[in-house]
Specification:
Distance between the termini: 54 Å
Strand content: under 5%
Structural class: mainly alpha
Number of helices: 14
Largest sheet: none
Number of domains: 2
CATH topology of the largest domain: Cytochrome Bc1 Complex, Chain D, domain 2
Shape: globular
Bound molecules: heme C
Number of strands: 0
Amino acid sequence: MLLHGPNYPPDTVAGFSQRGSSLFSLLFWILGLIVFVSPFLRDPAQPTPSTVEDTGRLASEIDIPFREEAGYFQEDYEVDLLTPLQEASEAWFGFDGERLAASGLIERERLEPGQRAYVAFCSGCHGIEGDGGGPAARHLEPRPRNFRSGIFKFTSTDTGTAPTRKDIFQTITRGLSGASMPDFRLLSEETRWDLVEYVRYLAIRGSFEQLALQFAWDEEELPDLEETADIILGRWSPQAARPVYPATPEPPMTEETVARGKEIFASSSGGSCSSCHGEGGRGDGPAAADFLDDWGYPIVPRDLTTGVFRAGSESADLYRSIVTGINGTPMPAYGGSIDPEDIWCIVHFIQSLKEKE
Ligand code: HEC
Ligand code: HEC
């Protein structure tokens, strides 16, 4: 009989009649089922509770789900923000939005296949709406990215600017070592480009809504949504997000380059890297405690001795992280303050730290 749990075969449970036992195990299974599936049943259109006790979904006060925050705004100022915002969002950033098409920022024909692949492979962690709140998110450290802030960490572009398509493609293809973000190199290249487009779409649309909400709080009224859209479109324009290339080619790694790198790594006129990463690069510098990232979650400087780097461990990857910094985290950008030759030396020093297994 299907409804009986394996531990309660009807004939062996003393004290229950056959019928009482069936009823008992039926109730038992229904209760179990409810407890198990309830976290997945939430209507995505409903506000999501934000406390850890409710769902374990969020640990941060900054990373509040958009609809919930819009709800607070409405309560405080009695201004309906959500309806006009959703309409504007749909008109400009919906799949068929004319603004989006005219902007040239998104290849629209990739959105539908991109969405299908996203729902299948990514939403479990990143959430259907891209807010980083998928059902698996609560178990993960670091958290899956909330794309709706528009902030990407591992980019080849100047600090604080949007990523290139290739940056996102690389993240999807290679995954992020040391974090739970898997690599998706088994998906066809076409599908990965579709996903890039859909992630851009979630980020552009999400950051429009977030910025409008921020303006609404600042101005205590409905902001000019046209202006808000222009700001976001500008941020994502190809002119704003240009990749940074090494200014000089990598020199061969020698004892001298490693020694020079070590010196700059520790010097306060150089990188002061050691203040966060520690002299030996173990992530235990004096300034390392109590950092939060831009989403409000605790973050620690990386242990550089493991040889595992999220954005890749090739010289060019490390060079890029040092020059452009890591957006949304305390890791600064050094492109303007350390000479390219010296940055290569730091790269060699970091590579020399890798401990043999
Ligand atoms: C098992 C959970 C998981 C799955 C599945 C997953 N990701 Fe991630 N992803 C993460 C985590 C965790 C991070 C954040 C890592 C960090 O902050 O260092 C992340 C970060 C990212 C980033 C941000 C990189 C940056 O520069 O900030 C992108 C883009 C991304 N994922 C895309 C995807 C796509 C597309 C898929 C589906 C094809 C996907 N992810 C599936 C966990 C996941
Ligand atoms: C204010 C603190 C701080 C300073 C100063 C700092 N970092 Fe970092 N660094 C961080 C944090 C925090 C992370 C982790 C970011 C993350 O988890 O995504 C990090 C990550 C890194 C990574 C890992 C990149 C990857 O792909 O995983 C490298 C490499 C790195 N830092 C090198 C440096 C170097 C070299 C310097 C000096 C030129 C430096 N850092 C200075 C805080 C700092």
